Amino acid sequence: MRLSSKRLLRCGLIAPPLYVAFVFAATLARGDYSSIGVTLSHLGDIEARHAWVFNTGIAVYGALVAAFAAGVYGAYRETGKVSPSLFFSPTEGEKRNSYLARGRGLAIAAPLALYGAANIAIGAFKVDVLEAGGDHGAEHAIHIAAARAAYVLAIIAMAGAAYALAGKRRLRLFSLIAVVSMVVFGILFSMESVKSKIGLWQRGFIGTAVLWVEALAVAMHRAEQRERLTGLRRQA
Which of 22, 77, 158, 159 is most buried, judged by most C-beta within 10 A? Predict the structure, then answer.
C-alpha cells in the first residue's frame, strides 16, 4: 500500500476520539446545557459561549473522515497488495484486481466522503435560537440540511460496508447492526411523544456512526499491519 494511503487510513483512527473530545470540551464550556433534552447542534449555536469549540471539532472530524474515505478507496485500488481477508472471501482470489474491487471500494468510500463533507458543513453553519414569532435564517437551514444528509449518508456507508467487506464477517454484521441502530434512534428522534429526550436519541445515532467509523478504521489498520508483516516475511 502506498504511504499516502496509509496516512489517509490513519485519519480514521484519529477522527472519532477527537470528535468525542471536542464535544466533551464544548459541553463543559456551556454550563447551562442538558445532554438529554437538547441536541448537540446547540453547543455551537449563535448564542452559545465558546461555540467555536464544537463547530471547529465537527468540521475537523468531517475533514478527517473525508480523508479516511480517500484512504479506503486507495486501499481497494491497491487491493492486490492489501490483506485479502478483509476485502474478499476465500473464493474470490482471482477477482482482487478486477473492477469488482473498485466497485466495493466506492460502495464505502463515496458515501463516507460525503458524510465527512456534510459534517464540515455542520461545523461551518450554526443553528439559530428561535425567538417567539421569528423565522430561522439561511445558515440554520443549511446546518439542518447538512445534519440530515450526514445521517442518511452514514447509513448508506454502513450498508455499503456490509456489502463490500466480503472477507470480514464480524465487521459486516456490525455494520448491519449499526444500520438498524441508526434507524431506531432516528425514529425516536422524530417522535413528538419522546421529544423531551431528543438529545439522547440524537447522541444514539451520532454515537453509532462515530463508533462505526472507528471500527472500520481499526479493521483497515490491522489489514495494513498484516500487509507489512507479510512483506517482511517475504524479504527474510
Answer: 158
CA distance 171 to 36: 30
Q: What is the DSSP letter of 83?
A: -
Residue 228 is predicted with a pLDDT of 60
Closest CA to 12 of 78, 79, 87, 63: 63
Q: Residue 175: pLDDT above 60?
A: yes
Residue 131 lies in a domain: no
Buried b (16+ CB within 10 A) or exposed e, 8-39: bbbbbbbbbebbbebbeebbebbeebeeeebb
Q: Hey, is 222 helix, strand or coil?
A: helix
pLDDT tens readout for residues 23-62: 999 988 887 788 898 899 888 887 777 889 999 999 999 9
Which three cell numbers mark 160?
Answer: 455499503
Burial group, residue 92, by CB count within 10 angstroms (0-12, 13-18, 19+): middle
CA–CA dist 101, 88 (Å, integer): 9
- Containing domain of residue 217, as a range? 3-126+139-235
Question: What distance in Å separates the CA atoms of residue 9 and residue 82, rounded to the nearest whole number?
Answer: 13
The grid cell for 8 is 489517509
Indicate the number of domains in the chain. 1
Which pTM value belongs to this model? 0.87
Would 133 be classed as within a structural domain? no
The continuous run of DSSP H or E covering 54 comes out as helix 51-77
